[in-house]
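re: ur question from yesterday

yeah so i grabbed the chain u mentioned. its 408 aa long if i counted rite. heres the sequnce exactly as i have it in my notes:
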Amino acid sequence: MFGFLIGASLLTGTLLVVVHPVLKWILYRIGKIPGKVAAGNIRQNLGRTAVAVAAFMVALSMSVGLGEMIGSFRQSLVWWMGTQLRGEIYIGKIGEAEVPEDFYEEVTRIPGIGGADPYRNVQVLFRDTPIYVASVDASVVQRFTRFGWLAGGNENWEPVKSGGVIISESFSRRFGVRSGDTITLQGATGPKELKVGAIFYDYTTEHGLVMMDRPTFLAIFGDHTINSLAIFIDPQNPGRAELIQEVRRRAQDRGLPVQTQAQMHDSILKVFDNTFAVTRSMRALAIVVAFFGIAGALLTLFMERRRDFGIYRSLGFSTGQIATMTLLEGIGMGVISYLFSVVVGTLLAVLLIKVINLRSFNWTIFFYPALAPYVWTALTALVASVGAAAYPIWKVCRTYPQMQIREE
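ran it thru and got these structure tokens back, copy pasting raw so excuse formatting
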């Protein structure tokens, strides 16, 4: 990715020469003669403008690329929650509380309950590497959820109900295990060989997840602990709301935390958003640094061309026209930077999603193109360009025409 950004930056000067005729036409339509001169100044001072445009382009590309990556990851997470976390309510929280086994049995006896999934998650060693093993009620999960499978559909639960396992995509990529392979887990009474029935998309852990039916889990580990309980109710059940209230009341009587499906999803997304808050700050910091790059380039060009301003004034340019010329130089550089960043940022997003994340976390993020990162980046480029030109414009307006002409 570093090489890609360096290559894109080194092409900036050539691209400025290529787009110069179009830029000159656009700026002339906006500012007439000052606009045309502004386009010429950008083209004739590539030693400074190309570096500033490259810096701004990289910053804007990072904004686009990271924005698309974060948005795609978030949408992938929303999709994943819609496939796996489909319970009406969830009782208990992993790491915070345990659900008594007798409460699980009590809930399953409530008339009208479609199913209850007792979830247990433990960390074990596989090939001397930490992974996670989870137990579920395969029959209930098969009926009420729609896991995202790399191949096949919910028929993949049939081998699980017979003592097999399914594995997460991250586990498959990390250890090179495929469907049909056999893995060995160290149980309470010794090693146990288990056949892999299928692979599913999962974002709970990058270390890898092996999922099995609860009877299989009990036979291997002898662990009856339940971390959380997902309650499923048939959508056609007319007493659905009453059943949810009844389960909630019984859980609260035992002091067990209860979350609805919406609350569970919101809490996961809140963790996600907090995790990427630092990344958003990095995007803002990159924009600030590039802003000073544009401002420095414009100010340097202003200082180098102070005598040129005297010529412009003697040729009949007003202070307003010179200020317009300076403003259009900043806007022109910002627009070019943004247009370059649209292409570079999109390719950067593809690299982040299809290469970097896959190699870093061993899971697939689906690309969900969104307009928002491009819109916000465009507004940022415009504001930064105008802001960068503000000080040079102020210097132009404060310099007396007689001084400029006399110096020349």
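noticed a couple things. Residues 232 and 294 are 58 Å apart (CA to CA). also The chain is about 65% helix and 15% strand.
anyway ttyl
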